[in-house]
Design a protein that fits this description.
The complex is a heterodimer of chains A (112) and B (112). By secondary structure, chain A is mainly β. Chain A is built from no helices and 11 strands. Chain A starts with a strand and ends with a strand. Chain B has 112 residues and is mainly beta. Chain B has no helices and 12 strands. The chains are: A mainly beta (112), B mainly beta (112).
């Protein structure tokens, strides 16, 4: 069983559209994250949720809205997509305040 | 703020060669240090970690020692294989704030 799974794996869309990426973890972890990896492989944290509560929001445009319906899920909704949103988005989870993260396999978003 | 700097790639090696990837960090307090590896088309996986000064992390033939005096955490492997071709990320983490700060990644290509 995949520990951290995210869907879809690839997402191609037009500028201005709204899209969502889903993430689920079956590790029983309390904390989940979204990271963005740009074309140069640079990774930057976007959000972190602990027990469904937002604890990190790293100056991400408010077009990006995370939603955590329960501890095992952290979805990412993006409104009014822009060209600069093209990247690979990684979901991750960790146990409590442990900084050992378990990553999903990524969603490659291409905005045309 | 906290930051991690690692050598730029790509690093191209022949099989059985010695690999070193340099990593230095800037941080307040006493961070934990990590190396994550990203194989093609996959998410990041924890390779090894060290939680305090002089600790040595090791896994799959890779080693890194937490050097507080030089603020470094260089990754080494004595004899690389083609299967070690990947992007390697150095990172630091603190329980407070519960997030990882990543370096820019170093692509390693091992040729037969």
């Amino acid at each position: 069983d995949t520990a951290v799974s995210q869907t879809p794996k690839y997402l191609v869309t037009q500028m201005g559209n709204d899209k969502s990426i889903k993430c689920e973890q079956n590790l029983g972890h309390d904390t989940m994250y979204w990271y963005k990896q740009d074309s140069k492989k640079f990774l930057k944290i976007m959000f972190s949720y602990n027990n469904k509560e937002l604890i990190i929001n790293e100056t991400v445009p408010n077009r990006f809205s995370p939603k955590s319906p329960d501890k095992a899920h952290l979805n990412l909704h993006i409104n009014s997509l822009e060209l600069g949103d093209s990247a690979v988005y990684f979901c991750a989870s960790s146990q409590d305040l442990s900084t050992v993260l378990f990553f999903g396999s990524g969603t490659q978003l291409s905005v045309l | 703020g906290d930051s991690v700097t690692q050598m730029e790639g790509p690093v191209t090696l022949s099989e059985e060669a010695f690999l070193t990837i340099n990593c230095t960090y800037t941080a307040t307090g006493y961070p934990s240090l990590f190396w994550y590896v990203q194989y093609p088309g996959e998410g990041l996986q924890l390779l090894l970690k060290a939680t305090k000064a002089d600790d040595k992390g090791s896994n799959k033939g890779f080693e890194a020692t937490y050097r507080k005096e030089t603020t470094s955490f260089h990754l080494e492997k004595g004899s690389v294989q083609v299967s070690d071709s990947a992007v390697y990320f150095c990172a630091l983490g603190k329980a407070a704030g519960n997030k990882l700060t990543f370096g820019g990644g170093t692509r390693v290509l091992v040729k037969p």
